[in-house]
Amino acid sequence: MSRVDAHKELVRRLVDEVVNDRNPDALEEITEGEITEAAKAWIGPFREAFPDFRMEIVTLIADDERVAVHFKCSGTHRGEWRGHEPTGRRFEDIDEIYIFRVRDGKLAEAIAVEDTLNRMRQLGIS
Questions:
Q1: Is residue 51 within 8 Å of 84, Cβ to Cβ?
Q2: Which tens digit of pLDDT belongs to each residue from 82-94?
Q3: What is the distance, to the nearest Å, from the Cα of residue 115 to the centroid of all Cα atoms in its chain?
Q4: Angle ∠(19,28,35) on CA atoms, nearest 5
Q5: What is the pTM of this model?
Q6: Among 74, 79, 70, which residue's Cα sits nearest to residue 91?
Q7: What is the longest distance spanned by two Cα atoms in the chain?
Q8: Measured between alpha carbons, how far apart are the two ends of the chain, in Å?
Protein backbone atom coordinates (compact mmCIF):
# COMPACT_ATOMS: atom_id res chain seq x y z
CA MET A 1 0.00 0.00 0.00
CA SER A 2 1.38 3.41 -0.94
CA ARG A 3 1.87 6.12 1.66
CA VAL A 4 -1.04 8.14 0.19
CA ASP A 5 -3.32 5.07 0.27
CA ALA A 6 -2.28 4.42 3.89
CA HIS A 7 -3.26 7.99 4.79
CA LYS A 8 -6.67 7.54 3.16
CA GLU A 9 -7.11 4.28 5.04
CA LEU A 10 -6.69 6.12 8.36
CA VAL A 11 -9.71 8.30 7.54
CA ARG A 12 -11.73 5.31 6.33
CA ARG A 13 -11.01 3.58 9.64
CA LEU A 14 -12.00 6.70 11.55
CA VAL A 15 -15.38 6.73 9.82
CA ASP A 16 -16.02 2.99 9.65
CA GLU A 17 -14.64 1.79 12.97
CA VAL A 18 -14.81 4.76 15.32
CA VAL A 19 -17.95 6.60 14.15
CA ASN A 20 -20.17 4.09 12.36
CA ASP A 21 -19.17 0.92 14.27
CA ARG A 22 -19.01 2.86 17.57
CA ASN A 23 -15.52 1.72 18.57
CA PRO A 24 -13.75 4.69 20.21
CA ASP A 25 -10.88 2.42 21.29
CA ALA A 26 -9.70 2.36 17.64
CA LEU A 27 -8.77 6.05 18.02
CA GLU A 28 -5.56 5.03 19.76
CA GLU A 29 -4.49 3.08 16.65
CA ILE A 30 -5.24 5.79 14.07
CA THR A 31 -4.67 9.10 15.88
CA GLU A 32 -1.97 10.64 18.06
CA GLY A 33 -1.60 13.49 20.49
CA GLU A 34 -4.24 16.14 21.05
CA ILE A 35 -6.47 14.93 18.23
CA THR A 36 -7.07 11.67 20.13
CA GLU A 37 -8.40 13.44 23.22
CA ALA A 38 -10.32 16.00 21.16
CA ALA A 39 -12.01 13.24 19.17
CA LYS A 40 -12.98 11.37 22.33
CA ALA A 41 -14.37 14.57 23.86
CA TRP A 42 -16.43 15.25 20.72
CA ILE A 43 -17.62 11.76 19.79
CA GLY A 44 -19.00 10.72 23.21
CA PRO A 45 -21.36 13.66 23.77
CA PHE A 46 -22.34 13.79 20.09
CA ARG A 47 -23.17 10.08 20.15
CA GLU A 48 -25.32 10.63 23.27
CA ALA A 49 -27.24 13.40 21.50
CA PHE A 50 -27.50 11.48 18.20
CA PRO A 51 -27.24 7.74 19.00
CA ASP A 52 -27.82 6.68 15.39
CA PHE A 53 -25.29 9.18 14.00
CA ARG A 54 -23.61 7.97 10.78
CA MET A 55 -20.99 9.40 8.45
CA GLU A 56 -20.40 8.68 4.79
CA ILE A 57 -17.28 9.59 2.85
CA VAL A 58 -18.16 11.50 -0.32
CA THR A 59 -14.68 12.55 -1.48
CA LEU A 60 -11.27 11.55 -0.14
CA ILE A 61 -8.02 13.16 -1.38
CA ALA A 62 -4.53 12.69 0.08
CA ASP A 63 -0.90 13.64 -0.42
CA ASP A 64 2.28 12.87 1.50
CA GLU A 65 1.15 14.52 4.73
CA ARG A 66 -2.50 15.57 4.45
CA VAL A 67 -5.90 14.02 3.83
CA ALA A 68 -8.89 16.10 2.76
CA VAL A 69 -12.31 14.54 3.07
CA HIS A 70 -15.89 15.57 2.39
CA PHE A 71 -18.38 13.75 4.61
CA LYS A 72 -22.17 13.62 4.66
CA CYS A 73 -23.67 12.83 8.04
CA SER A 74 -27.11 12.03 9.44
CA GLY A 75 -28.62 11.38 12.85
CA THR A 76 -31.70 11.65 15.07
CA HIS A 77 -31.76 14.13 17.97
CA ARG A 78 -32.40 11.93 21.04
CA GLY A 79 -30.31 13.69 23.70
CA GLU A 80 -29.32 17.21 24.72
CA TRP A 81 -27.07 18.97 22.21
CA ARG A 82 -25.60 22.45 22.63
CA GLY A 83 -28.12 23.17 25.37
CA HIS A 84 -31.11 22.07 23.26
CA GLU A 85 -33.41 19.36 24.52
CA PRO A 86 -34.04 16.42 22.15
CA THR A 87 -36.43 17.20 19.32
CA GLY A 88 -36.76 13.66 17.97
CA ARG A 89 -36.12 15.17 14.55
CA ARG A 90 -33.51 13.95 12.12
CA PHE A 91 -30.79 15.76 10.21
CA GLU A 92 -29.78 14.30 6.85
CA ASP A 93 -26.86 14.79 4.48
CA ILE A 94 -25.08 17.50 6.46
CA ASP A 95 -21.83 18.48 4.76
CA GLU A 96 -18.57 18.37 6.69
CA ILE A 97 -15.10 19.05 5.29
CA TYR A 98 -12.01 17.97 7.23
CA ILE A 99 -8.33 18.36 6.46
CA PHE A 100 -6.16 16.02 8.50
CA ARG A 101 -2.40 16.17 8.89
CA VAL A 102 -0.65 12.80 9.16
CA ARG A 103 2.44 12.36 11.30
CA ASP A 104 4.27 9.08 11.90
CA GLY A 105 1.47 7.11 10.25
CA LYS A 106 -1.35 8.54 12.37
CA LEU A 107 -3.83 11.40 12.14
CA ALA A 108 -2.21 14.15 14.19
CA GLU A 109 -4.13 17.37 13.46
CA ALA A 110 -7.50 18.34 11.98
CA ILE A 111 -9.21 21.43 10.68
CA ALA A 112 -12.95 21.12 10.12
CA VAL A 113 -15.84 23.01 8.60
CA GLU A 114 -19.33 21.69 9.36
CA ASP A 115 -22.71 22.95 8.18
CA THR A 116 -24.07 23.34 11.70
CA LEU A 117 -26.65 25.93 10.67
CA ASN A 118 -28.29 23.49 8.24
CA ARG A 119 -28.17 20.79 10.92
CA MET A 120 -29.90 23.09 13.41
CA ARG A 121 -32.52 24.09 10.84
CA GLN A 122 -33.33 20.47 10.07
CA LEU A 123 -33.68 19.82 13.81
CA GLY A 124 -35.94 22.84 14.21
CA ILE A 125 -33.67 24.60 16.71
CA SER A 126 -32.20 27.47 14.68
A1: no
A2: 999 999 999 999 9
A3: 13
A4: 75
A5: 0.91
A6: 74
A7: 46
A8: 45
